[in-house]
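wait is this the right file?? whatever heres the structure
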């Protein structure tokens, strides 16, 4: 069983409370941090839970501080959970050398290559250990879970949902790294975390997974047209073509003039909360 979380700080927010926590993770073999927003409805009953996975360089704080999602979570009665994006201070040589690999860049995979394997197990942490901890210590309905994310976290959300349709009833993403085996960010991360065999990388590529997912959930994606990473790193058209090939329901909204940052996310986060609420709420 996961160890009990320790409260780091807590704040009143839209009638509910936002808490930041730390705990020892058996999966990642070290301390991990996460944030939980409990809307006012959580005082009297268990609620559906929505996980948000953040992007490169982010922590458990970015989304909670910048996105403005708590207002809409309070309106609909959803608990929000944001994990950190990687283990930190793991003692691995070179873990802090690059902004797009190592610390802050776990890519939501289970590393199989050394020296990352002992700590960088972010896929299992997000899918298994963290939800078990949340279910034990917070008033959630474990059978009603959704997941969404941004950039690297959008990649993670799509992968977690496609690989675990029984765990996540709803899924969406902002500007996801939609075909990581075909872009420099993904190739760098996968090559180091998973080793040189690119066949093993396919298990963490949403554009590959969707081809055999047999999934009926509607996937919502927002992508800004002025995103500087659009053509080289994100490749939403690859995911779009894969979805079309197998009849996967997809609402890919190309938003004119929007870039990759949190001004973009705050503009459309209400739509994403509503997308999840429509599925998760009875």
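ok assuming it is, sequence goes like this
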């Amino acid at each position: 069983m996961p160890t009990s979380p320790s409260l780091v700080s807590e704040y009143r927010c839209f009638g509910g409370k936002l808490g930041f926590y730390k705990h020892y993770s058996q999966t990642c073999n070290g301390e991990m941090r996460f944030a939980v927003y409990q809307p006012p409805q959580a005082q009297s009953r268990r609620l559906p839970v929505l996980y948000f996975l953040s992007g490169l360089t982010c922590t458990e704080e970015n989304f909670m501080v910048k996105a403005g999602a708590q207002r809409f979570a309070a309106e609909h009665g959803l608990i929000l959970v944001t994990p950190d994006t990687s283990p930190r201070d793991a003692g691995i040589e070179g873990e802090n050398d690059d902004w797009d690999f190592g610390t802050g860049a776990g890519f939501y995979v289970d590393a199989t290559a050394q020296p990352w394997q002992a700590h960088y197990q972010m896929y299992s942490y997000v899918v298994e250990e963290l939800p078990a901890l949340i279910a034990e210590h917070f008033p959630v309905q474990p059978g009603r879970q959704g997941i969404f994310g941004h950039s690297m976290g959008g990649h993670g959300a799509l992968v977690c949902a496609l690989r675990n349709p029984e765990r996540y009833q709803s899924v969406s993403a902002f500007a996801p790294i939609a075909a990581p085996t075909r872009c420099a960010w993904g190739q760098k991360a996968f090559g180091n975390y998973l080793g040189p065999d690119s066949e093993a990388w396919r298990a963490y590529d949403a554009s590959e997974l969707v081809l055999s997912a047999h999934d009926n959930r509607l996937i919502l994606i927002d992508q800004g047209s002025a995103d500087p990473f659009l053509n080289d790193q994100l490749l939403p058209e690859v995911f779009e073509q894969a979805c079309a090939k197998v009849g996967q329901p997809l609402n890919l909204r190309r938003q004119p003039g929007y870039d990759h940052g949190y001004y973009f996310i705050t503009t459309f986060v209400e739509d994403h909360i509503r997308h999840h609420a429509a599925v998760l709420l009875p």
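The CA atoms of residues 10 and 280 lie 26 Å apart. so i think its the right one actually
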